[in-house]
Specification:
With about 80 residues, this protein is an all-alpha fold. The chain contains 2 helices and no strands. The protein has helices at about 1-40, 65-80. The protein is flat.
Length: about 80
Amino acid sequence: MNDLLAQGVQLMVLGMGVVLAFLLILVAVMTGLSALVQCFAPETTGGKPATAPAPEPAPRVSPHIRAAIQDAIRQHRAQR
């Protein structure tokens, strides 16, 4: 039983080491690729930034319609 437990711990350490090595290699490759992209295709600083179109103003609601909507909401809430 003790030998089986030792093998389990050894396998766990080996698996965690492989995952850690893979992640470290992945970080190194991503950092290298980022530096490579920045070297060959730098971000442009010229030109004007894109702006979103201004939202249209909300249409005005007449006081009679507003009162009708408020009454309808009150009636709906009273039915619950």
